[in-house]
Amino acid sequence: MFEDDIDLEGFYGMPSARALGVLFQILISNRKVTTTHDLLDYFSDGIHELRQAIEELQSLGLLEVTGVQQDGVDTSKLEITLPGHAYLSGFAWELIENYQNYFSE
Fold this sequence. Notes:
Layout: H1 8-11, H2 17-28, E1 33-35, H3 36-39, H4 47-59, E2 63-70, E3 73-80, H5 82-104
Helix pairs in contact: 2-4
């Protein structure tokens, strides 16, 4: 009844879909480290939503954030933490298992 009003993923300590997308974008950029400035090209929801996703990942311990300057612009350096990599590995494993079960049936 109230499930639509509650962010169950956030409540249970899992990243929201938006935050997970940011984490994957950092991972697939072929760099362990990127900046907020770099992500703006890929994130169409806007800077406010991007900052919320980054704060969420940081509060879950999946992302380390430090202030830097890039091309004279203040930005944040984003680095996936060891727990972040572990989470992504577990997520990928679950996807593989689910697809293997789906296609084997």
